[in-house]
Structures are given as C-alpha cells and as structure tokens.
Specification:
Layout: E1 3-8, E2 11-17, H1 18-32, H2 37-42, E3 53-59, E4 70-76, H3 97-104, E5 107-108, E6 115-120, H4 123-128, E7 140-147, E8 154-162, E9 167-170, H5 212-246
Helix pairs in contact: 1-5
C-alpha cells in the first residue's frame, strides 16, 4: 500500500496509509451532507404539515420505484368524501389518539389538479409495512398526507392504502405524525382545550414547531460522522503507537 508523508512538529517523518486520506474525504462529505438538496428532500419541511389532506384515485403512471424515494402519478377521484373514510384501517404505528384522530379528520383534497404526483418512502421502508412492489397503473390508491409548499401538484402521504383491500402502509419515522397540527375546526384562542360536539376535549391540538422526523436526517448524519471520527481517532492512536514501538 502506498503511503503519504505527514510532517509535523515533534514527528519528523510519520507515514500514514492512504486509507486515512479516504476516511477524511468521507468525513468531509458527512459534514457537507446536511446542506445537500437530497437530504433536505428527505424531511417534511417543504410540505404543508399544518394541513393533513385526504386524496383518493387510481395510479396513472408506472413512476419510479427506488431510492431515495419512489414516485408515481394518480388521477384524483372527481367526487371525494368530506374527510378520510371511517372504514380505512389506521396502521398500528399511527394508532395513538394524538395521530389517529388527525388522520381520520383529514379534509378531502380540494386543489386545482386532476392529477397528483405522489412521493413515498423507499422500497426498504415501504416493504416493512407490506408494500414490496411498485403500484400498478389502474390500481386503487388512497392517502392522508401533505401537499408540497413549493409544488402544489406534489403529495406526500403519512399513510396510504392501496389495492381493492385497502392495505395500509405507514410512511412516518418515529411512529408519529411529523407535526400534530390543530384539528380542523378547532380553536385555541381562548386558551381552553377545544372540544368536539360533546364534552370530551379533543386531544393534542398543540402545534409542534419541530418534530422528531424533521430532525431525523441531521441525527443520522451526525451519528455517522461521530462513528467515522471515532474510528479515525482510534485507528490513528494505534497506528502512532505501533510506529513509536518500531522506532
């Protein structure tokens, strides 16, 4: 293996293998990664997380099945129910009342587009919850999620249902909604807990400014960075120790 020469004070001729140079490049890439558009796209920040919407339709394109996300188009039904149909099964990961209440209360999409582009999690994640293949053209699709702030023709679900059996597929990390926004029609102006038509307070109308999902990308990056930095430090220590013993 070729070596590079590193001259430092107190160490006149220290030979470091090229692997350390390669690792340094990886570390630098890890530092810069949070600023990349790809990582930013993994988060929910570019979507209107204050407004959960329900969409339904049929898959109208083969789309892309792969990493970092899968894409396909749907033709939106001309007549949508007012909100999420009550007979749709909420996946186990979103059955906490704070989340399931919001999913069930999502208002029907009323935007200008007859077709929407749908972005879902990569195959490895969707496959964990039952979808191990691309959706087929003409297949039934229903979803609850968010419209992009930057492109109102782009929809990203937190959960979706596919096929004639309405199989549910979880799409969130941390098993909770990215933001538990106020429920439709609720008000917190008076400082009291809003209620439904009865006397039971509706749970969780507080807005979380930054959710665990929003921070997950940075957490993963800095964890990887920390592991690599630790590996460099440990490897460098033993390399120097071995070099000193030889000398």
């Amino acid at each position: 293996m070729k070596n590079i020469i590193l001259h430092t004070r107190g160490i006149h001729c220290l030979r470091l293998p090229n692997i350390f140079r390669i690792i340094a490049v990886v570390v630098l890439g890890s530092i810069l990664l949070p600023a990349s558009p790809t990582l930013a796209h993994h988060g929910w920040g570019s979507f209107d997380t204050n407004n959960l919407v329900y969409v339904a339709g049929t898959v109208s394109s083969d789309g892309t099945w792969g990493n970092p996300h899968s894409y396909f188009d749907i033709t939106v039904d001309s007549n949508l129910p007012a909100s999420t149909p009550s007979d749709l099964e909420i996946p186990e990961q979103l059955q906490d009342p704070e989340d399931s209440t919001r999913v069930k209360a999502a208002r029907a999409y009323n935007g200008p587009h007859k077709e929407l582009e749908v972005i879902i999690a990569p195959p490895a994640w969707s496959g964990m919850w039952g979808l191990d293949r691309p959706l087929e053209v003409g297949e039934r699709f229903q979803g609850v999620g968010y419209i992009s702030r930057e492109d109102d023709g782009l929809f990203r679900p937190v959960v979706f249902w596919y096929g004639d059996d309405n199989t549910p597929v979880n799409q969130v990390l941390g098993n909770r909604l990215p933001v538990r926004a106020p429920l439709p029609g609720s008000s917190t102006d008076s400082g009291d807990s809003p209620t439904d038509s009865g006397d039971t307070p509706i749970m969780g109308t507080d807005v979380l400014e930054l959710s665990e999902n929003d921070k997950s990308g940075d957490w993963v990056v800095w964890t990887v960075f920390g592991v690599i930095a630790l590996a460099i430090g440990v490897g460098g220590f033993f390399y120097l120790r071995r070099s000193n013993q030889r000398n």
